[in-house]
Amino acid sequence: TMATEAFRNLEIWQLSISLVKKIYLITRDFPNCEIYTLTSQMRRSALSAPSNIAEGSRRGSHLDFVRFLNIALGSLAELETQVIIAHELEYIREDCLDDLTEHIDHISRKISSLSKKLRPHA
């Protein structure tokens, strides 16, 4: 089943890992005063997505997996909010904002779709 498939093979996990890398690279240029606030918050939100996908996929039950996928979705919504704030504070440019929100939206849609497929079996 999908739930027992190795998490590393899941496209949503792979896409989330590439998002984490983007967030780490982008936040490197944030002002030092943000290291314990926005930088840290954005990294934590980004890290939460693949971590929850991995943990949920290992739980063995569809119901558990769906629960962890929902946590990942919540983290991505937080991250999108933080990305918008970073743009408002002029830490990131418009093109970067667009790229990140597109990446986040793409993963979120794929997670939602997997979640719907798993729900009838939950």
Task: Name some characteristics of this structure.
122 residues; mainly alpha
What does this protein structure show overall?
The structure is a single chain. By secondary structure, the chain is mainly α. It is built from four helices and no strands. Helix 1 runs antiparallel to helix 4 and helix 3 packs antiparallel against helix 4. The chain is elongated and about 45 Å long. It starts with 10 loop residues before the first helix and ends with a helix. The model has no long low-confidence stretch (mean pLDDT 93).
Radius of gyration: 15 Å
> Which overall shape is indicated by the principal axes computed on the Cα atoms?
elongated
Number of helices: 4
Give a quick account of the main beta sheet: strands, pairing sense, barrel closure.
none
User: Helix and strand succession?
Assistant: HHHH
Contiguous uncertain segments of 5+ residues: none
Helical residues, percent: over 70%
Distance between the termini: 12 Å
Q: What is the mean predicted local confidence, pLDDT?
A: 93
Q: Tell me the number of strands.
A: 0
Percent strand: under 5%
Structural class by SSE content: mainly alpha
